[in-house]
Task: structure prediction
Amino acid sequence: MLEELSKFQKPDSIGSVRTLSPIARREMRTGLSFISPWLFGFLAFTLLPMLATLIFSFLDLKITDGIFSAPKFAGFDNYVHLFQDPQAGINPATWFNSKTPGSLLITIKFALIALPIGTFFPLSLALLMNNKHLKGQFAFRTLFYMPYVVPFVASVFLWGGMLNSESGWVNRALEYLGVAHANLPQWANDVNWVYPTYVIMGIWGVGNSMLIMLASLQGVPTELYDAAKVDGASAWKILWNITFPMISPVIFYNLVLDIIGLFQYFLVPLVVNSGTGRPGGATMFYNLYLYKTFFTYQDMSYGSTLAWFLFVIILLITIILFSTSKYWVYYAGESKS
Amino acid sequence: MNKNIKNGVSALTVTTFVLGILVVFLSPFVFMVFTSLKPKEQISIVNAPIWPAAQPKYEYNGEQLDIFTVPLNQCAGFDPNSSASKSLALTKKGRQESTFIDPDDLAKGEFVCAVSWRALDRPWKLSLAWSNYAEVWEKIDFLRLISNTVFYAVVTMLGTVVSCILVAYGFARFRFPGRDTLFIILIATLFLPGAVTIIPTYSFWQKLGLVGTWYPLIIPHFFANAYNVFLFRQYFLTLPRELDESAMMDGAGPLRILWSLIIPQSYPVIIAVVVFHIVFAWNDYFGPLIYLSTAKDNWPISVALSTFNGIYGKQPQMIQAGSLMAIVLPVILFLIAQRFFVQGIVITGVEK
Result:
């Protein structure tokens, strides 16, 4: 799928509508009517709302106005405000001279911590699962996957309990291992520990990525490994020169979805720290700020401006990732030109 | 070294290592079960055991006596050289001397031990507070939450399965101009941030007066989604076309072919989508939160659970009991249908 996307557009299966034979025309009508539920849904729930978001960002709208009242045109006011707003944190100049770092910087900072772990941890687990010496692979795979199906709120409460600074098992274990009581982390209530707290909660649901990577590892043809062994390649060389290139499409897919997810990160801070940005404003992520702007402060047009800006950032990052993919993502059956 | 032994040692090392990670990984589940069964009294006591336990009492002459672990060499009538301790019931508190009875040997009567009762430990005994579950069940009207959640899961599951099968069939079996472009657009919606559509969409439902009802959550599921369409399409593409074509020669229409040829061959992927969707709907939090937070009667489990911090701030056993009740169904469903889960993940994850 990514392959198709990275090539951007293949020529359509057949020519223009005008040159179609009557049979082909009938096939077209049938095909279009089958995909019509999606076509309608795409227009109604994706394309039109996207355009509306763009239009709202040039208006002055409050939620109480509704969408059918006479709109007030605001020009670029919202974008000017966005650029000056220290809480949004778009403008690097605002990063260091305000009380709290802006929400965009917070989001990027957290992504830089969470992204390597979110790639490395499932990959290591998948490699372990794929180890030929491991007994009971099926049971392990199932049990490592299980936390993924735990409802989000329940997992937040679970970890809230596990990481409770007094009664939580993690701090009890740390104390048992010799950490002084006064040095025990306050986890979600501590500016220095709140990101690790979120990361721990996140990697608990690692099962899905692990399984995708494992399936991809199992799809690497054994002849490649056999040939490398005949040539006397070391385990590390095999991992680096055969395994990684062969599973790079899946790592790439995981990376793209992770980055997109991290830029929209907000449910965890919303529930764990009640969406307040506590401790010390460190958890006011960009998307949380957007959510609050719309649902709490009821500012439709500024919320839309924040949303559209987020969309542009994510689009740019996705385009950059896809354009670099040809240098490091290997698709079998394609020459690496 | 013998090759078999060498393999055995490797197997043992690797398996033990992974088992160690797994134990840490799954410990939160044990924490949840333990905490959810703790009696209320245990919560506030510092240094209480991590497993559900109570400090037992002994009824004597109509009084509830606390039980303490007493070193017997301090007590009158016991061997002064004994190093044993015993659980005794305290009848009279004292700083220098306290009076006890032995619940196992009442005939002995009360006797004095030269200990301060304050310096003694009270023993803990396993005590499972099953009533926590009953209390949570009552308090949040769990039956109504379940029926709300099941309603949401089943109705949207039907919408998703039907619409995604139709759309995937259209993409997999018919040629028309623009098809491949449309398919790429469909896949691209996987990468679209939800934030860019939510404001107008929410405002639209609000204008229609439907915020607080299930409609904004249910209706969009009847218009297919990229993830499941992709899953179905990939599967349909692996089915041989010859059967379709001969059925078409016999005059079967496209719906007929879909119904009697394609669907009967596709049950593994249909089950995968059904299970995925039910787990998704059961766990969905954001949608119900924004559309239903003011309509308490319509709450699904996820939203009701999130209010627990407010209700049970100081009662972790209740919070964990509620969480446990919320995870039972998705976990069981996953364990039963894991084969289909794995298959679905492999199709979407690896083929992309």
About this structure: The first helix of chain A runs from residue 2 to 6.
